[in-house]
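A further point concerns the way the authors explain their paired sequence and structure data. Showing the layout once, in full, would remove most of the difficulty. For illustration, here is how one protein appears when written out as sequence plus structure tokens:
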Amino acid sequence: MNVYEEYQKRLVTAEEAVKIVKDGDWVDYCQTCSFPEALDAALAARKDELKDVKIRNAIAMKPVQVVEQDPEHKAFTYNAWHCSGLDRHYVDKGLAYYMPMLFRFNGSYYTKGYAPVNVAMITVSPMGPHGYFSYGLTNCCMQEMLDAADHIILEVNENMPVVFGMEADHIHITDVDYVVENNVPLGTAPGAPAGEIDRAIANNIFPYLYDGITLQIGIGGMPNALGGLIAESDLKDLGMHTELMSDGYLKLYEAGKITNKKKPINTGKGVFSICNGSPELYDYLHMNVDIMSAPMAYVNNPATIKALDHFVSINGCIAMDLYGQVCSETAGTRHISGTGGQLDFVTGAGEAAHGQAFLAMPSTHTDKKGVVHSNILPKFTNGDVITTPRTQAMFMATEYGVVNIQGIPTWEKAERIISIAHPDFRDELIKAAEEQKIWRPSNKR
């Protein structure tokens, strides 16, 4: 039997495919653009006949019907490895739960049996002539998850680009139980506009960049502002090595800034693990031999990052304290995003010979009542989750500057951190530092 006959033998409707799910199962959608929209809707339609079905996903970009159609969790419990804005909304409303993880270890949770998978449902590109489907925009821990699955259902979508990978980038028709077809547009993640503070922070970080560095940048207004500065600068021969590829990188490719020629490993290749952004970004990646996907276990491994030598990681955070601890995933006990790969890249950059890791945030935030609060705190006491410990935080950036807080005593950390706080809060932070016995009488005021 040829591969097309194998395909037809497995081709069913979404409603037929999801009948394989039974009470108590763990169902995995993987992450970002692998979200199987038709299968999710068909599974949600079974809410009155199923119970205790647990769903895993991450970074949802479209409404998740097993959540939307079952807000009381009568049939489904939705769990997210990492939160998008939509996932955060679900968590806020008590409709979802976060699963703590480090991205570099995500695949091992499956291989070690910590995360069982009864049914995997993922979106892939159309089948090629040899019977293979590309995972497209989502490599991450895909292969480990599928290897752990008892049953696999593919949702084939012609909008999913074919993306070449170093490994773990495809599956064969004979390895799946069912195939469904659904050519809806993929989920997108519009780039956040850069505000005045974003631009100020970007301007503070930009002088630390130089020709030939390999960049890992997050998403949001500040990275977009920094990307604009780089695109308009004289910098050249930059490299890309990132867990998440967004439109900020597309801008740098189109400006000719990224060539990957100076990378000591994966020379000439931009490397990413997951991608979300615009349709234009997805089109750019289709069949593009200059860029390859790779598993999180490789991309986020500090040993890999260390080998890149001149590596620069730039990510956002939410708050920090005077000891140099950094919170990037909660506001108090309210969940915002996730650990993700921040600590992976901070660790790897710290080990690279010329590595730099920047964690950036505005110096203040304004609450719903219009009250301004400092994002630099004397100490964390309200349940904030520490993402990056004080022993690893390197460069901290706000609109008031950039400071390196590695290799110095507590009083000097406090002094440097307060120097990038909003001026309106510096005196009270100094008072707190004195009370906490991390302020020298001779420190700057």
